[in-house]
Here is the input.
Amino acid sequence: MAVKPLKKGARVLGIDDSPFEKGDERVLIVGVVERDFLVDGVLSTVVAKDGDDATERLADMVCRSRFLPQAKVIMLNSIMMAGFNVVDIQELRRRTCLPVIAVVRRKPDMKAVKRALSNVCCAEEKMAKIARAGKCVKIGSFYAQLAGISKEDAAGIMKRYKGIPEPIRLAHVIGGGIMRGESGGKA
Here is the structure.
């Protein structure tokens, strides 16, 4: 099966959380709409640290955006936002009608995730969202969980970028700049 890359001019929405401190209750989430390596727009919302509102807040942010009709895919930097606020990527896909690719650099250690979740509220519900996201599949040098898109089509989209997808990287850079006065670290 041929892997389909994005057509020229296709818009990708990359989303990442901003840096936060231990005592923070809310965490800034930044979305960047990118087209052919040009930024078309920036979106933002806030979610509860270790909460359970990430799916709803991201879906609302995307659905309220003037970019929704033009976006072809949502790319997340992991299904975990703001600590352990787990995004239900299947629900995000259903609410936005856009495929979702949640990218991570390393394959998650599910035993370690389960241990860490035992320290936060609603651990069973969070584990259920993680299970609904499906297994991590290797795409190039990254791993991804997918909703509404095949591994082959996700690989075609990821092929567009040499490293971490540019809209995710930009969301990370913008979030760090806003929260810390300058950006730093890897997305």
About this structure: Strands lie at 11-17, 26-35, 38-48, 71-77, 80-81, 85-86, 100-104, 137-139, 142-147. The chain has one domain: 11-177.
